[in-house]
From TrEMBL, chain A:
Transmembrane domains' residue ranges: 12-35, 47-64, 96-118, 124-150, 157-175, 187-213
Function: Required for the export of heme to the periplasm for the biogenesis of c-type cytochromes.
Similarity field: Belongs to the CcmB/CycW/HelB family.
Organism: Aliigemmobacter aestuarii
Molecular function terms, GO-annotated: heme transmembrane transporter activity
Organismal lineage: Bacteria, Pseudomonadati, Pseudomonadota, Alphaproteobacteria, Rhodobacterales
Predominant cellular place of this UniProt entry's protein: membrane
Protein name from the UniProt record: Heme exporter protein B
Topology with respect to the bilayer: Multi-pass membrane protein
From TrEMBL, chain C:
Species: Aliigemmobacter aestuarii
Name of the coding gene: ccmA
Key words of the record: ATP-binding, Cytochrome c-type biogenesis, Membrane, Nucleotide-binding, Translocase, Transport
GO biological process, one term: cytochrome complex assembly
Name of the protein this chain belongs to: Heme ABC exporter ATP-binding protein CcmA
Domain called ABC transporter: residue spans: 3-208
Coiled-coil blocks: none
Keyword Transcription included in the entry's annotation: no
Length: 218, 242, 211
């Protein structure tokens, strides 16, 4: 399984753009929103937690269709399904690789982009913490969506339609943590709920994703 | 004689053909009776005036919007466990109906909300949850449409329905947490104190029965269509092969 | 190492295409599947490899014994020949020695550091087949292994298969061309074509509705 993770990361690096595109998209969102909303710092500060979370979520969504599509096209997925690794493990590794390539860099760059949106000082720490806790859930849920749509020719749009409603709880709790952090309120409740969703999704969804892959390979 | 006998497509077609006229007539009667009683023979509310009467559409539609999803979840589980085609097709047939009920609940809610809260749309937890439920229906139906092989589609949509149900419940609580909301409490509950008064209660019950029967009628009709379509597909696939 | 298939029926797109297939395959033997296009060779191999469920029948074989090679090779274009093989070696728990043996066996020595993207179609196929050698599995299930191979490579591959058989392995091969494996048994799938219900074949799950 470590071999698979190493391979996926190596592929992402060699293909180029694996890291770059999501980050560039995230940057674009945080630049476009002030252009649309207006430059008043107070307004931006108020909506910053939401914008940053929605931006990170959409950036995550961008690369989801590639989680399984490439392996499906070149036949690797068939071979992986017959290999001695359980398919649940393959799926979990794929989510992990997706997170390292998109979720982790998004988490690290978010505080820099938060400066552009005048996020209040108290929010920075919780922005990073909430993204670090929440983006794994985005990758795991997204992998499930990718598993459902892996055999489809034009799965990209459908994938977004399937995955975005599933992102609702993560988004709500994640943005709430940052909002409360920025306002200096207690953050324990949403933070724990966010962590709970991530833990639950990471523990259970790989089984559903693996089932979906098996059905799609039939 | 077991209940699973009705999952045989042929048996289902026979039984539903027999039952359809009855449920159709009953649902029309209940809906007409309940709505006429409710609209014309109940007093105006002392606070809400006659706007309260939209309750006879809003509440049953909202209930059926959720019940339709529950029914899809149950039929999906039956398909996964017992592989009865009728079950999967019934889930497929119920989705657009459930979505329409969700839409009715949202629209009547907006029409009710305008005079009461002074706005067409409020990001109230209940309204928001229904909007999210609407998105779940859209995704479910889109997945059915996108997959060519009917068995694969049935399997994948069942998995989606199960995972979606968990996330729908999570979203419901998340949305509650996110905004406390303006919406009044449940209109119906076992606790008598919280209930709407008897004057509204009885016609409302009849309307709910009417909506349930309407749902059953539509699901039976659509499932019959789906079974026929599936049969045509199977024949065409065989022809292509021969 | 013995594999037995008994009364196997398999379906493609919900329609049963083959029924009543049965054979036994012992270590050291090869079985070649023949039959016209569309008869269901690929479907049957996928069923045996465990990628899709059998409609009926039994497949008896020791666990973890199959190495499956499909039409597509599952190569990663941006990885080199050695990296591609090393990945599968670690998935199957075999070591770098197996990789070396596979590279020599399929004559990939001079290409070892080239990216798979820069290989010709035949070279890619050779790399795909070299993957079989690093799996260390006794039963090879091969779907049209010789597509895009030239005559010399076909001979090379036949030699590889023969060595595998000599070491006690077995191979189940669907192919149209003659591999030059004279010792291989041949199974023609023609007689196992599934009959349609009008010819007295079994009803599928959805025929009973209007029977």
């Amino acid at each position: 399984m470590i071999a698979l993770l190493v391979r996926d990361l190596r592929l992402a690096m060699r293909a180029g753009g694996g890291f770059g595109l999501g980050l560039a998209f995230f940057l674009l969102v945080t630049v476009l929103v002030p252009l649309g909303v207006g430059p008043e710092g107070a307004t931006l500060a108020k909506i910053a937690p939401g914008i940053l979370w929605v931006g990170a979520l959409l950036a995550c969504l961008l690369s989801l269709d590639r989680v399984f599509a490439l392996d499906f096209e070149d036949g690797s997925l068939d071979l992986l399904a017959t290999a001695p690794i359980p398919l649940e493990g393959v799926v979990a590794v794929k989510s992990a690789a997706h997170w390292i390539v998109t979720g982790l860099p998004l988490t690290l760059i978010a505080p820099v982009l938060a400066v552009l949106l005048h996020l209040p000082e108290g929010g920075y720490l919780w922005l990073v913490v909430s993204l670090a806790l929440g983006t794994p859930a985005l990758s795991v849920i997204g992998t499930f969506g990718a598993a459902l749509t892996v055999g489809l020719k034009r799965g990209g749009l459908l994938l977004s339609l399937l995955v975005l409603p599933l992102y609702v709880p993560t988004l709500i709790f994640g943005a709430e943590v940052v909002k409360r952090g920025a306002e200096g309120m207690a953050i324990a409740t949403p933070l724990l709920l966010l962590a709970g969703i991530t833990a639950g999704a990471a523990a259970l969804l790989p089984f559903a994703s693996a089932a979906a892959i098996r059905i799609n390979l039939r | 004689m077991s209940i699973w006998e009705y999952a045989n497509p042929k048996k289902f077609m026979q039984t539903s053909a027999w039952a359809l006229p009855w449920v159709t007539v009953l649902s029309v009667l209940c809906l007409l009776g309940g709505l006429v009683w409710g609209f014309f023979f109940t007093p105006d509310d002392y606070k809400q005036g006659s706007t309260v009467k939209i309750i006879y559409l809003h509440v049953p539609a909202a209930m059926m919007a959720i019940n339709a999803w529950v029914m899809m979840l149950v039929t999906s589980l039956i398909w996964i466990v017992r592989r009865h085609h009728v079950s999967a097709l019934a889930a497929k047939a119920a989705a657009p109906i459930g979505m329409t009920f969700t839409l009715i609940a949202l629209v009547t809610g907006a029409i009710w909300g305008q005079p009461m809260w002074g706005t067409w749309w409020e990001w109230d937890p209940r309204l928001t949850s229904f909007l999210i439920l609407f998105l779940f229906y859209l995704g479910y139906m889109a997945l059915w449409e996108a997959i060519e092989n009917p068995d694969t589609a049935a399997d994948l949509t069942s998995v989606l329905c199960m995972v979606g149900s968990v996330f729908a419940i999570l979203s419901r609580y998340a949305v509650n947490f996110w905004n406390q909301g303006l919406h009044q409490g449940a209109s119906l509950s076992l606790d008598k104190e919280e209930n709407v008064s008897d004057v509204y209660w009885f016609p409302l019950l009849i309307c709910i029965a009417g909506f349930v029967l309407l749902f059953v009628t539509l699901v039976l009709l659509r499932t019959r269509t789906e079974i026929r379509a599936r049969r045509i597909q199977a024949l065409q696939a065989r022809e292509k092969l021969a | 190492m013995e594999m037995t298939v008994h009364g196997l029926a398999c379906a493609r797109g919900g329609i049963t295409v083959l029924e009543g297939v049965g054979f036994a395959l012992r270590g050291g033997r090869a079985l070649v599947l023949r039959g016209p296009n569309g008869i269901g060779k690929t479907t049957m191999l996928r069923t045996i490899a465990g990628l899709q469920p059998a409609v009926a029948g039994e497949i008896g074989l020791p666990p973890e014994s199959i190495a499956y090679a499909a039409h597509s090779d599952g190569l990663k274009a941006t990885l080199t020949v050695t990296e591609n093989l090393s990945f599968w070696a670690s998935v199957y728990g075999t070591g770098p020695d197996a990789v070396e043996a596979a590279i020599t066996g399929m004559n990939l020595g001079i290409l070892r550091d080239r990216q798979a993207a820069n290989l010709s179609a035949g070279q890619k196929r050779r790399l795909g087949l070299a993957r079989l050698l690093v799996t260390g599995r006794p039963l090879w299930v091969l779907d049209e292994p010789t597509v895009s191979l030239d005559a010399e490579s076909v001979r090379l591959f036949a030699g590889v298969v023969r060595r595998h058989l000599a070491e006690g392995g077995a191979a189940l091969i669907a192919t149209h061309i003659d591999l030059g494996l004279d010792e291989a048994e041949v199974l023609d799938l023609g007689p196992f074509r599934a009959r349609s219900p009008s010819e007295g074949g079994a009803l599928s799950a959805f025929d009973e509705a209007f029977a």
